[in-house]
Amino acid sequence: MTAPSLLRPRHDEAIATRLARSAATVGAGATLRTADFEDWLEGRRRAHHFEVRRIPFAELDGWSFHPGTGNLGHRSGRFFTVEGLSVHTDGGPYPHWQQPIIRQPEVGILGILAKEFDGVLHFLMQAKMEPGNRNLLQLSPTVQATRSNYTKVHRGADVKYVEHFTTPGRGRVLADVLQSEHGAWFFRKANRNMLVETEEEVPLDEDFCWLTLGQIGELLTRDNVVNMDARTVLACAPVPTDGPEALLPDTDLRSWFTARRSEPEVRAERVPLAEVADWTRGARSIDHVKGRYFRVMAVAVEAGNREVRGWSQPLFEPTGTGTTAFVTRRIGGVPHLLAHAKLEGGFLDRIELAPTVQYTASNHTDRTGPDRPPFLDLVLSADPARVRYDTVHSEEGGRFLNAESRYLFVDADESQAPLEPPPGYAWVTPGQLRGLAGHSHYVNVQARTLLSLLNTGAVRL
Amino acid sequence: MTAPSLLRPRHDEAIATRLARSAATVGAGATLRTADFEDWLEGRRRAHHFEVRRIPFAELDGWSFHPGTGNLGHRSGRFFTVEGLSVHTDGGPYPHWQQPIIRQPEVGILGILAKEFDGVLHFLMQAKMEPGNRNLLQLSPTVQATRSNYTKVHRGADVKYVEHFTTPGRGRVLADVLQSEHGAWFFRKANRNMLVETEEEVPLDEDFCWLTLGQIGELLTRDNVVNMDARTVLACAPVPTDGPEALLPDTDLRSWFTARRSEPEVRAERVPLAEVADWTRGARSIDHVKGRYFRVMAVAVEAGNREVRGWSQPLFEPTGTGTTAFVTRRIGGVPHLLAHAKLEGGFLDRIELAPTVQYTASNHTDRTGPDRPPFLDLVLSADPARVRYDTVHSEEGGRFLNAESRYLFVDADESQAPLEPPPGYAWVTPGQLRGLAGHSHYVNVQARTLLSLLNTGAVRL
Known about the structure:
Two copies of one chain form a homodimer.
Chain A: E1 8-9, H1 13-24, H2 34-47, E2 51-55, E3 63-65, E4 72-74, E5 81-89, E6 96-103, E7 108-117, E8 120-129, E9 137-140, E10 143-145, H3 147-150, H4 163-166, E11 172-180, E12 190-197, E13 208-212, H5 213-219, H6 228-235, E14 245-246, H7 250-262, E15 266-271, E16 279-281, E17 286-288, E18 294-302, E19 310-318, E20 322-331, E21 334-343, E22 351-354, E23 357-359, H8 376-380, E24 387-394, E25 404-411, E26 425-428, H9 430-436, H10 445-455
Parallel strand pairs in A: 7-12, 20-25
Antiparallel strand pairs in A: 2-18, 3-4, 5-6, 5-15, 7-8, 7-10, 8-9, 8-13, 11-12, 16-17, 17-18, 18-19, 20-21, 20-23, 21-22, 21-26, 24-25
Helix pairs in contact in A: 1-5, 6-10
């Protein structure tokens, strides 16, 4: 008789197969038909009282501008602050700018619980109100919690199901990686993106439902249903990789990325919000002098299904709808995405891989000719026959008000997007992007939304 | 007739085999026998005039303390500055400290050129003088250059062979990754670690020699021959991975790491050097009030084979010899290393994987009993029969004076290092560590030195 081996396989191929089976399961899961989802969500909407109204900063409860710095913060010292950022760089079209930025140093958890029903993996999704979403209620991860949330700074209710993510060894971890969020709006923010499978009985709270990966993919073809936090976690799912070939070998791709990250000098420093140039503070908002980018404003919230029953908070409100797109080509028969090594002032490490296009067009009306953001017009004026996907999604509704973007996949040809792309762009396969998304600091949150569409089958290239 | 495929394999298994062949080639390479190496190095030593002497700060040429901040910098604004760092954290034995720190925002290149001779890969190594090395001359990468170096801020000679690393597509990239350096002494420093294979004819400069990976491994069993920059590049070589099994599956290992990195709150902020508490500035050095850790001092250099002929500069001089060790065990027959998720104030992202032990014992004489650094005494008092490797190496001689550490591999058993290690420690295979070293922000520079010993065959577990 031999002792059981202490060793386990470093890689478990079976999980990819099981995720593929879940992605192929559409129309109905174990507990809910996709056709009935909208009624279910509407039911949750009716079950709770939600009201969000804009208020002047002076009516914020517990939040105030620091008399010296002008930074906007909560009296508890937790949650987040709105401060100033000053960026100097030689790595983009703008050598210097200043702006308000959200600072939230604590690492939160975005976690989706998975469980097999009838041999198919299902994911526990929550109907969650966020004050910044135009439709308030969207589908979020099982758990979406800052450390303040689950350590009770809110003095509110417990965060449901969080113990599955905070108790080591309780479930089986399928993914767990720190990922950045919007580098244009957050200063070096990261959240833990977790996918954990359980074999326990899981009592189903009325605001939650089990869906297959394929069902979530179906919902991702609708505007503003699946929230950003859910999308970024789904981007980290270890679904089957595409083939063993690509335009660039992995080593060459990483080398290209290393070179891009090594190039720019970036000095991104926090400055007092009161001293930020080109932004002015009024009673109800802090605005850019040209009315561009976003404004900082405040809301009062009444809600019935959150950890606390009412609160007020600042939000960032973008001034336009974003356009976020991967330009795609089949190269040697294999789908490729044109990734952009993008500098964002709030990134911890200067550069991450972004979609081909990630702009709010109204902010760039004065960039014409060769200064025009690359590929933006290609996407905005694409022949509908080349548009594989075009759906509006919201960014984090807990920090941003009506922050919506059209997410697109647009096919291109050699004349539009050559095999040798301009500097700062590289062709990658979805599998290569997925591999990099298994680590921190590689794939930005907008690219992860687009990756989630591939992972769930919402888009097929 | 079909067009040639545009696709290439994402992974080339052949390179690992070729590196293994090079690692197995010991005793002699195409141009130099290992037995003749010491004579060759001695010849290079005689061929140049080197002199390094300690000088008071007032005799530094071009360097001065800023009248306001007290920061020590060069009048060109380049090279590096010595500034202050203030750290607050809940993630280690010390909740708050201040210290001098080196700030060097530009990304340099550490590059080794590879070329096949008689079917075996050889590596172009340089006999390079660095003022901080006790023996001045050590074996360095082909290229070891800050951006200031190769963009001529020194107004010195060209950096030899650098074009192989800065011309995209010129050679074949085997590795190219940004890696951190000492988080205790540098503020968020990173260098590009590159291994590039060429098929061109390469004229051999007299300060350079071609060695196989195995020969470098032989030299790594000698004290103070192969410098830190060479070791960290060799740690990134894509040598064959060990087997497909480990105590922790890769996903579990990454999840453990993500949890460790998510835990601590770390506030590491630059402060004026003049305001750093517990450090005092004299005419010749800046010292800790208890004489611990390191001192900042200055040297004048005369040299004949560097890019410039004479200069002066500050250096950090540690006050003791470090002890840097992996505790090792065979688990289920497979070698494992006990990695430590270590917080260093200068890391960009809080935590990296460090060796089991990484301490300068003399700094910790007052930590006794349960406060004693874990595993330090196990390593310091190890039965010689359990010591697989014990050799002294220098850290970067361009920034540090006589910064030496004993590097060790020490076998342990269940009573000394249990399969369930204390919090903050995890068992990893060399292959797992190597995989993580293919990305930034995972494996610290001391752990990379130990990994280079495995990659070159200097140590076999």
